[in-house]
Amino acid sequence: MKIPNILSLFFLIDFCSCSLSYKSNKQHLDRIIVIVRHGDRAPLMPFTFDRDKMNELWPLGRTRMYRTGQFLRRRYSHQFSGRYISPRDIYIRSSAVPRCLESSQLIAAGLTPPIGNWKWKSDLGELWQPVPIFTIQRWREGLLNPSSTCIYASRLFDRIPNSSIVKNFMLLHQELIQNISCIVHENLHNHRDIRDFVDNLVSSKHHGHRLPKWCTANIYKQLKEIFDISFRFDFTGNIEPELRRLRTGVLMNEIFNGLDMETNPNASRLSIYVTHDSQLFHLQDALGFNINQLSLKFGSMLIFEYSKQEDSVHLYFSNVPGPFDRITVDELKIPLCEQNLTRIPLGYLQSKYKNLFLDLDEWDHQCGNRNLVRQQQDS
Questions:
Q1: Distance between CA 136 and CA 268 in Å, rounded?
Q2: Pairing relation of β-strands 312-318 and 330-331?
Q3: CA–CA gap between residue 234 and residue 142 (Å, rounded)
Q4: CB-based burial of residue 121 (10 Å sphere; 0-12 exposed, 13-18 middle, 19+ buried)?
Q5: Helices 217-234 and 191-206, axial angle in degrees (round to 10)
Q6: Which end of the chain is more exposed for a tag (fewer CB within 10 A), N or C?
Q7: Separation of alpha carbons 150 and 6, rounded Å
Q8: Which residues form the signal peptide (predicted)?
Q9: How far is CA 91 from the centre of its chain?
């Protein structure tokens, strides 16, 4: 891992006073890392009109993720030999949940369609080619799934509903919650029950389904506010700061090692990680971004671009509402100095965030997972 040198510090000071404009299509990029949420899925708690199984990728979600692959191909193909991104040029890692695995396959299909020597058959082989998708068991997925087994993180997570912040928030909305519970005959005890219930409404509305008559525009607005705020309670470190390291440490370590060509010279030039909105919340919070007003859409992306020549990291964000909307990205200002830079030396970023980095062994140790891992290995 690099230690920021004098040149890097001068580089940082220079950009604190004046951040230059940057166009990725003109700049040579040595490493590109994409963290993306899966595509549009069915609700968690489907109403009677929903025929799809819970949580599964919908047809519109498949379209979105295929288009995401096409977008990445258009944005980055000029960075590769022959202006073609082949399966050998990319690394795709997915959460073990089916909707993420399916999203990964669709991104790969849009990103690297077979051309020339990569065509392997006269029909299907002209449209699609196999691309490896890597994953591990869900309970071990400390990288991409914030519900993976971490004993200590689970204890911290269980404390959140009893915090004064959450209790006061629930009291503020107590009348609305009780009324909704009576109408729908559901026991909505805490903010997580409400979030799972409202997720159904949000997902159904997103896909054009008619909502129940009791769900007026005003009630939907209030429930959506509760839904959004509940993510801040559970998937940031605002209430339990240690969750930042335990739930993003492995991913942060993977990202910044992947960007570092000295530490990890054999890493793929383009790496894609398919995950969940909760993990993206954790990641953006760990990076220092204010996410109070942020609602993550399906297919939202956080993109890290690294140029060795400039020794600079650029960060981009995409959060497109609809599966057929034009995919765009906005460059983010990295919140590391008063001016909030758009580009910063990699070594400086590594030193800034190093207290969050965890490899899998360290993660197991801090989670208190060691005995559990041994039991699984012995079974």
A1: 19
A2: antiparallel
A3: 16
A4: exposed
A5: 120
A6: C
A7: 39
A8: 1-18
A9: 16
Q: What are the domain boundaries of the chain? A: 27-136+146-152+239-365, 158-234
E-assigned strand segments in the chain: 31-37, 90-94, 270-275, 301-307, 312-318, 330-331, 343-344
Instruction: State how far the alpha carbon of 261 is from the alpha carbons of 126, 264, 308, in Å.
Output: 34, 5, 8
**Is the CB of residue 286 less than 8 Å from the CB of residue 252?**
yes
Asked if residues 333 and 341 have their Cβ atoms less than 8 Å apart, the reply is yes
We find that the CATH architecture of domain 27-136+146-152+239-365 is 3-Layer(aba) Sandwich (3.40)
d(CA 379, CA 374): 9
Joined together, the tokens standing for residue 289 give 């971004």
- Averaged pLDDT, groups of 10, the chain, 379 residues long: 42 39 65 97 61 73 96 97 96 96 98 95 92 92 93 96 95 93 89 90 81 92 90 93 96 97 94 96 92 80 95 93 89 75 86 95 92 61
How far is residue 109 from each of residues 10, 65, 144, 235, measured CA to CA in Å?
43, 9, 21, 31
How would you class 284 by CB atoms within 10 Å of its CB: exposed for 0-12, middle for 13-18, buried for 19 or more?
buried
